[in-house]
Amino acid sequence: MRPETEAQLSEAIRDARAPLRIVGGGTRPVGADLSGAALHTGGLRGVSLYEPAALTLVVRAGTPLAEVGALIAAEGQRLPFEPVRWGPVLGAAGESTIGGVVAANVSGPRRIQAGACRDSLIGVRFDDGSGAVVKNGGRVMKNVTGYDLVKLMAGSWGTLGVLSELSFKLLPAPAEQATLILPDLDPAAAVPALSAALGAPYDVTGAGWLPGTGAMVRIEGLSESVSYRAGRLAVLLAPFGRVIEMRDGAAALWRDLGEVAPFHGATGDLWRFSVKPGDAPGIVARLGFPVVLDWGGGLIWALVPEGTDARALAAPFAGHATRMRGSGAGAFHPEPAPVAALSAGLRAQFDPRAILNPGRMG
């Protein structure tokens, strides 16, 4: 099924008599293998409203992410949360859609400064498990009364509803960018340096560690401001090791970091840990396998042998871990009993027939 209108989407869900497998671009095959008829959202594409002067975009969920990026870049704007593609590292062909980005709450390196995908989302339209159209939020900030379904839908992985239209706040693209690289640091040594940069008053918009490159810190903004802040940060980071400033070509490094490029095509299971940055060195040491660090060490991508339970290797740790690539049960982190009860209650309300991606999140 490939509906092209919201009415067709509602009809497809209402008429379903068995589970539905919600498919956007097919680039994020995370979680349990799903059975059931495929419901493709790629027909729901196109821009409903774009007001560059108001920094507002309303777009249908099946619109390719690349099209959205090109449209707003032409006006010197961007999505604040720096969406990234996971298809290459997950071994999934296809074209990422903006609805899939929201469903998985995909947020790139700029999350540490601009917030997550859900923080830039100001309105949603979706069909629940009965086929009813639900609208929440709108086209301006601070417009949500009652339950904030906008935030709820981001990261729900298609288990609460099928997204049809999304509203975003945008930001101007920066005039200049500088990246400071500490090439001699290993992951454990990188985290204190990244924490020092993030704790300084220089508005860092990226902080990570990439194999073969080292620790990286990004500054963005007006040219003179970038030069000043980069200079001050270089002085601050000098005690941690050699510092190199990079301008041209640095964007590719941040793309590689967000897309976990070192693990493209590599064999093994891929795990994603969200933890306190200060805990990252100990977790990396216990894992003992190749890693990529983002969000100042708060996000750890780890490549482990097939069938390895990376959660057990990393224990004890506070946070959560998700198996992004690999087979087996329990890809998503187990929820504490009170949270699991709330999640079950929400699914019962939004999908009483249990037909939307049932079992995907365990």
Classify the beta-strand content into a percent band: 25-35%
Shape: globular
Distance between the termini: 25 Å
Oligomer: single chain
Number of helices: 13
Count all strands and give the number: 17
Biggest sheet strand order reads: 3-4-8-6-7
* H-E order: HEEEEHEHHHHEEHEEEHEEHEHEHEEHEH
Percentage of residues assigned to helices: 25-40%
Structural class, by secondary structure, is: alpha+beta
Q: What are the low-pLDDT stretches, counting only 5+ consecutive residues below 50?
A: none
Highlighted features:
362 residues; 13 helices; 5-stranded antiparallel β-sheet; 4-stranded antiparallel β-sheet; single chain; alpha+beta
Q: How would you describe this structure to a colleague?
A:
- The protein has 362 residues and is of the alpha+beta class.
- The two termini are 25 Å apart.
- Helix 8 (187-199) packs antiparallel against helix 11.
- A hairpin with a 4-residue loop joins strand 3 (47-51) and strand 4 (56-60).
- The protein has a five-stranded antiparallel β-sheet with strand order 3-4-8-6-7. The protein has a four-stranded antiparallel β-sheet with strand order 11-12-10-13, sandwiched between helices. It has a four-stranded antiparallel β-sheet with strand order 15-16-14-17, with helices on one face.
- The chain is built from 13 helices and 17 strands.
